[in-house]
Each structure stands twice: as structure tokens, then as C-alpha cells.
Amino acid sequence: MSLILSDTYVQLALGSLILLISFILFRKGNHLEEPPLVPYKYPIIGHTIDYFKDNKNFIKKCHAEYGEIFSLYVFGRILTFVGKDLSSEVFRNHKDFNFADATNENFPMDHFLNRPQRFFKLLPKVVLINLSGEMKFYTERVQRQLIISIDEIIGNGKVLEPPLKFVQFIIAKPIAATMVGEELSNDKELVNSFANATTDFIPFISVPPVLGFIHPYLHKQLMINMFRYLNNPFKMHRELIKKKITPVIEKRLREMKEMGDNYVSPIDILQRYIELLHKDYSVDIDVITDYMIVTIFVSVHTTSNHLTFSLDELVSNPQFYDELLEEQEQLYKNNENPYYSVEQIAKMEKLDSFIKETMRVNANYVSLQHLTLSSYFTFSNGYQVPKGRIVYIRTGEIHSDEELQGQNADEFYAFRYLKKNSRATRAEKSFLSFGLGKHMCPGRHFAINEIKIALHYLLLKYNIRKANSEKIEPKIRGHFKFPGDEELIFEKRE
Ligand code: HEM
């Protein structure tokens, strides 16, 4: 028997038979009322080329022809897309759909770090309670560090090209001060790793999932192996972060043990992780390092991107510049203290509306992918999706819908949200840049405050302009939007 099985042809035949049976069983087992699958010309390739070539117009066309919910065949996988009528059902039913699990399919961070799935479950709570919930402790520190980093990076004036590269450094220092304390945030090597750790991941995210044409699992395995075995600058950042935080963690644990109830806890996210994860004053430093890495990953690049988008919109829409500047000058004049309080920052209402409008128009056309967790899910219009299906939200369409956004939704209007009780951090089904529902971004209060403060100081200190008269357009890669690379000119104001 073993002799027969060892024959390559017999093995191949058996393998094919198993595949065929599984395929038939899969087809037979799926009695669901699935959303329409948009027809495609080329087998295997499906809609992949149209989807990546001109995502916005292709999705628009499919919506016009197939309605609120439809499916496409992209990189060997059926993906379902929903718009303004059904998206809230995805966010509301968080036991049926999960964003982190869908992200994990293409970008398995837990695997990269050799951790089991959902290892970092403390993270959203820590961010919500200890960062966004305790903003008053961080506001002054963020301003102090932003002023220093703006001075270090732009000084008496500079041309930033591409701007995002510089903005990452401006943003990384105050985030480092919040995560690991102000003393460590003076360490240039550490801040460099905070600034670049995420960007150094981008080559991995950008690998086109061609193996997905055979099976999505193969692409995931390729990414994990590339990450683990190829020369990888991200590992260098991780080692550096570990080296820098280790003595601080050890010192803090020693003092916590010695001083007991008299220990005055430093206020930063590192301390929170130490307190939550230590056992008898001993902690696995690799676990804390990985928590730090994931926290950097969700915070630095997202905030830098949106600050850069804001600068691009500021110079591309000069009609709003003077009014935005005036608000900042008023606030500055009326401030009697060296730094602003959370309440004073809340008064930057025009700036808040401007940032929200920037986020609205620069959202990815489709985003917020959610993996279907339950055996199937039935939408209110009767269509069903099976377990394992990734459902995308047509965010761009929702963000440019006149019924939801008001008049001229395709134009940039900086004061769209002014006096409408519609802050950038508010949960609204018409504004999805921070997601919605149970998993809505818990760091949004911190992020918006940091972007506001950075813009406030930049507007006061510099005349900001672009080199030519054309509007700076975002770079589009498939369904992703990135800030443009065009130079931004910062001239010191008198
Ligand atoms: C402008 C900057 C930011 C943007 C646009 C952004 C956007 C998002 C989005 C779209 C989600 C998914 C929400 C969903 O599942 O519905 C998310 C989740 C998350 N964000 Fe942010 N984010 C930003 C900044 C930050 C910052 C500064 C932090 C923390 C320091 C942070 C921490 C998190 C965490 C922990 C989650 C996971 C929440 C969960 O799974 O329950 N984010 N963010």
C-alpha cells in the first residue's frame, strides 16, 4: 500500500480528487442568497485589474449597475462591498464582523511578532482609558515636544519634500513622550525608530497578493516568511526600542517593589503596560516591546498622514487660510499660560472643521474591511454573506453623498462642520475615517488634538505655501490614498 501511495502520479490524482470533492461540497453547502457577483471576463484574474487600475470609478460603476451590495473577485478572493444603507449593519454587529481580523488576513502583525492571534487585546482599552481618557495629563507635554520638534525639523524655514517624511519626525517626538515619557523622548535614536518603524513596514504591505490567485493562505504565509527571514529594518527598530526601554522598565519595577503604595507612577503608556502585565514585579520585556511596537504602528503613521493631508489642503485651498490663521492668532493672544489647556484646544473650532473636512475628502474610496465571523450573516435587504467573507465599506461614496454631507459634497469646504455639533472625533455614520461602533478608533481624541496643536503652531510660525498653482492631489495606489510628494514651503513669519 505504502508503495502505491509513494507513487507521485497516484498522489497527484488523490490530491486532485480531494480538491474536486471539496469544491463540489463547498458549492453544494452554500445555499446562501449571496449579493450579485459582478460578471468578469477573465477567469482567475476576475476584477483584479479594473479594481486596482481605477478603483474609484470602477466601484462607482458597479454601484450604479448592481446597487447597494455587490461582490467582486479580486486576487483570487470574493470581496463584498456595501455603501451607506448597509454599512451601519457591519459596524453594529461586531460579533458577526471584525475589522482587526480582516486586516490580519493581509497584514498578520501578530504572526510577524510570533504571537498568537488577538494577543494585543489590552491595547484598545489602554488607549481609550489611559490616553484619550487622560488627555489633560498629556496636552502640555505634547505641545512642549511639538514646539521642540517643529523647531528641530523646520527651524527658521525649510522646503519639505516629500513632506510626509518630515512630518513623521515632527509627530513621532510628542507620541514618544506620551508612550515612554519625556526623558526617553529626547533620545534621537528612539524617536527615529518611532518615526520610521511603520514606514519600514510598507514594502511588506505593498507586496501584491498574487499568490492569492491560488489561495489567500499562501500570500499570508509568504508575508510571514518574508518578514521573519528577509533582512528587515523593522526588526532593527524593534531591537533598538527594546534596548532603550529595558533599563527604564527594570528601574521602575525595582522602585515599585521597594516603595509599594508610596510609589508615584510616571504618567505614560509604558507604565500602564508595566502595571497591567507584571507579576510580582517581574515582566516579559519582549511582550512590553511588542505592545509598544503595535501602539506605534497604529498611531504614528495614521497621525502623520492626516497632518500631511491637512497641510496639502491648507495650501491647495488658500481661500480659507486667513480665517484659520486668525482663529489661531486670537487664541494665542488670549492665552495667559505657556501652554493651552484641553478646553482651549477645543475652542479651535475652525481648525477642527478644517481637519475633519480634510479627512472626509482624503478617505480611501473603499476601506474598513471586516471579516465575517459567524457561519453567515443576513443583511436587512435579505442578501447573505458566508463566514470568512471580507466585507468592505464604500467610504468614499459615503463621504461624498450629498444627502449625508450637504451641498457641494464633491468640493473642499473647510467650514462644513462649523457650528453643527459635529466635531472631528464624533461618532457619525456619515464620517468613517475613524471607523464606527464598538471598535471605533479609541485614539482619535489624542490624534485630533495632536494634529490641531501641530497646525496651530505651524500656522503661527510660518507662511506655508506650495511651489506652483496646481492643487496637491493625493497619490492613489489601488484603493489607498497617500499624501502627495510635492514640496511644501515653510517661510518664517516676522
Ligand atoms: C488620524 C489618526 C488616526 C486614524 C485616521 C485612525 C483610524 C482608525 C481606524 C479606521 C480604526 C478601525 C476602527 C474600526 O474597526 O471601526 C482604528 C482603530 C484603532 N486605533 Fe486608530 N486612528 C488614528 C490614530 C490613532 C492613535 C493616535 C491611536 C493610539 C495611540 C490609535 C489607536 C487605535 C486602536 C488601538 C485601534 C483598534 C481599536 C479596536 O480594535 O477596538 N489610533 N483607528
UniProtKB/TrEMBL annotation:
List residues binding heme. 441
Q: Which Gene Ontology MF annotations are present? A: heme binding; iron ion binding; monooxygenase activity; oxidoreductase activity, acting on paired donors, with incorporation or reduction of molecular oxygen
Record Pfam families: p450
Q: Which UniProt keywords apply?
A: Heme, Iron, Membrane, Metal-binding, Monooxygenase, Oxidoreductase, Transmembrane, Transmembrane helix
Q: Which cofactor does it need?
A: heme
Q: Name one GO cellular component term.
A: membrane
Query: Where in or outside the cell?
Result: Membrane
N-terminal signal peptide:
none
User: Which PANTHER family does this one have?
Assistant: CYTOCHROME P450 (PTHR46206), P450, PUTATIVE (EUROFUNG)-RELATED (PTHR46206:SF5)
Q: Which family does it belong to?
A: Belongs to the cytochrome P450 family.
Identify this protein by name.
Answer: Cytochrome P450
Species: Rhizophagus clarus
